[in-house]
Amino acid sequence: MKIKDKNNIAIGERIKEIRLSKNMTQEVLAEKVNLGSAQQISDIERGMCGLSVAKLMEFCKALEIDADYLLFGTATRDTKCSLNKYLSKMTPEQSRCVEDLVSAYAKSCGID
Q1: Which of 16, 27, 74, 88 could pair with 45 in a Cys bridge, judged by C-beta atoms 3.0 to 4.6 Å apart?
Q2: CB of 18 closer than 8 Å to CB of 71
Q3: Share of the chain above pLDDT 90, in %
Q4: Is the dihedral of CA 6, 9, 14, 17 positive or negative?
Q5: What distances in angstroms separate CA 72 from CA 1, 11, 41, 95, 104, one per listed residue?
Q6: 60 pLDDT more than 80
Q7: Domain 6-72's class?
Q8: Residue 43 burial (10 A CB sphere; 0-12, 13-18, 19+)
Q9: 3-state SS of the chain?
Q10: Structural domain spans, the chain
């Protein structure tokens, strides 16, 4: 008998929520993340098993969601925000430059 881990349960619930919001079946998700069957998706969604880092990345890509949301329940990059749309396409160096610009602007506005 498998013992459910509370973290696996929370992650599984978020996977299911996102999958359903995208009108995606367990079969389709299993195919997108290279799992053998819908039963494996069901086990993950019920918290019966966890995900490796590599598999977590596949779920994020397939569901078009941040790992932060799957892991912690909060999205740090809202894709509807136009600034984040640009940031997601930048290199790490370009992102740091934008961060420096925003930080300087915030300071000039009296925001710390």
Answers
A1: 16
A2: no
A3: 52
A4: negative
A5: 27, 8, 19, 23, 30
A6: yes
A7: mainly alpha
A8: middle
A9: CCCCCHHHHHHHHHHHHHHHHCCCCHHHHHHHCCCCCHHHHHHHHCCCCCCCHHHHHHHHHHHCCCHHHHHHCCCCCCCCCHHHHHHCCCCHHHHHHHHHHHHHHHHHCCCC
A10: 6-72, 77-112
d(CA 52, CA 58): 10
pLDDT for residue 18: 93
Instruction: Write out the two tokens for 100.
Output: 């420096």
Question: What is the residue whose two structure tokens read 């509807």?
Answer: 80
- What are 23-58's pLDDT values in tens digits? 999 999 999 999 989 999 999 999 999 999 999 999
